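Bench log. Compound arrived from synthesis this morning; before running ITC I wanted a structural hypothesis for how guanosine-5'-diphosphate-alpha-D-mannose sits in the protein. Inputs:
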Amino acid sequence: MTVSGPGAEETDGHGRAAPEGAPGDARTTVTVIIPTFNEAGNVEELLTRLAAALPAHLDCEALFVDDSTDDTPAAIERAALTCPFPVNVIHREVATGGLSGAVVEGLKSAASEWIVVMDADLQHPPSLMPELVETGRRARADLVVASRYAGGGSHAGLSGRYRVAVSRTSTLVTKGLFPSALRGISDPMSGFFAIRRSTVHAHADILKPLGYKILLELAIRCRPRTVAEVPFSFQERYAGESKSTVREGLRFLAHLVSLRTATPVARMVVFGLIGLTGFLPNLCALAALTALGLHYLPAEIVANQFGVLWNFLFIDLLLFRDRRGHRHWADRLGRFALLANADLVLRIPLIALLVDGMGVAVLPATALALLTTFVLRFVATELLVYLPLPGRPRGMAASFAREREDGAKGERGEAEEREKEGTP
Ligand code: GDD
Ligand code: MN
C-alpha cells in the first residue's frame, strides 16, 4: 500500500494509521458497485468469491447497474438467492454514459460509508475488495486505487502486447495532462477502487460520466484529498468477452478533452489550437483547387469551407460535445460557418493585396492572411469581450479566482446516449 495527500501524515512509518472511531466501533459499511453489460456467465462466480472473501466486520451489499440485453438480470436474481449479503440491481433501459454512466448512477444511490467499484468479469480479484476498504480506513484516505502499476501489481490479464502498450501510453499521457489531480495514482485507468461516499456525494452534480474511465472522472472532478494504492494483478476474464471497442478509444479522447477544458480559459486555448489545425485542410484544398485551374480568389472561398468543416467537427465533437443537444447539427453547422466565414471579408482583400499588389505567391499569402486574421481575432476578443471593467480586479489573480469558481460549478451537460456496438 502507498499513501499520498494531506491526510497521509496521520499514518505511521508503514503507511498505517489508527482506525477511525472508537476501538469497539469496528463495523464498516460498503456498497460494491458492479456495472454489467451481458455478463450472465460471471455474476454467480463473482458473488461466490466476494462472499468467501468477506470478513465479519464488513457490512457489504452488492449493487449491479445493468444495461444488459442478455439474461444477466435473471442470472443475478438466481445468484442472489444463495448470497449471504443483500444484492440489488438497477436495470437501465437506456445505457446513458456507458460504463461510467452506470457507475455514477450506482454511486448516487449508494448509502454506505464506503463504495467499491469493480468489473463483473473477475479481472478484478474479489478477494482484494476488503483490503481496499481496510486500507482506506487505516490511511484515512478518501480514495484507494487497486493499481496494476504499483510495486507488486501487474497487467497479466491484459490480452496482447498492443493493449499493454496502449494502456501504458494513455496512462503516461493522462498523468502528464493532470499532474496534480493524479498525484499518487499510478493507475488512473483502473476500474477497481474504493472511494468514500462523502467524497463522491459532495461533487455528484458536476460529474459528466463518459465511456470507460470512471476513476479518472472521479479523481479529477471530486479531488479526493488523500489517496492510497494497493497493488493487484489484472486477471484473465472468467467468461464472456470484453465490451471495449475502438469507439471506446475515441470516447476516451473526448473524455480527456472534456476534463481538460472544464474552465473557460482552457476552453479558449483548445479552441485556438483547433483553429490553428484548420489551416492545414484550408491550404491543402487551396493548392488542389488552384492546381485545377480555378482562379485563386474563388478558390480561397471554397478552400475556407474545408477549414471551417474541419474546425466544426473537432469543436463540435470534442470541445462542445456536451452542449450538442441544444440545436440540430445543421443549425449548429450553419451558425458556425457564418461566424467562421466572417473574417473572409478581411482576409480576401488582404490576400488580393499580397498577391496582386506585392507579388507574393497564393499559398504563402493565404497562410500569412490566415495567421493575421487569427491573431487579430484573438486580440479583438481580448479587447472587446474580456477587457475588465474599470474598478474591477484585473490580471491573473482575478482571472484565476473566477476560473476556479467556474470550474467548481462545472456545467451540466445533457448526457450522451450510448449507442451500443453489438456484443462482439
Ligand atoms: N452497465 C454497464 N453499461 N456496464 C458495462 C458497459 C455499459 O455500457 N460496458 C461495459 N460494462 C461492464 C462490463 O460488463 C464489465 O463488468 C465492466 O464494465 C468492464 O467491461 P469490460 O468490457 O470487461 O472492460 P475491459 O476489461 O476492456 O476494461 C476494464 O479494464 C480496463 C483496464 O485495462 C475496465 O475496468 C476499464 O475501466 C479499465 O480501464
Ligand atoms: Mn474486462
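What the model suggests: Confidence is low (pLDDT under 50) at residues 7-24, 396-424. DSSP finds 15 helices and eight strands in the chain.
ITC booked for Thursday regardless.
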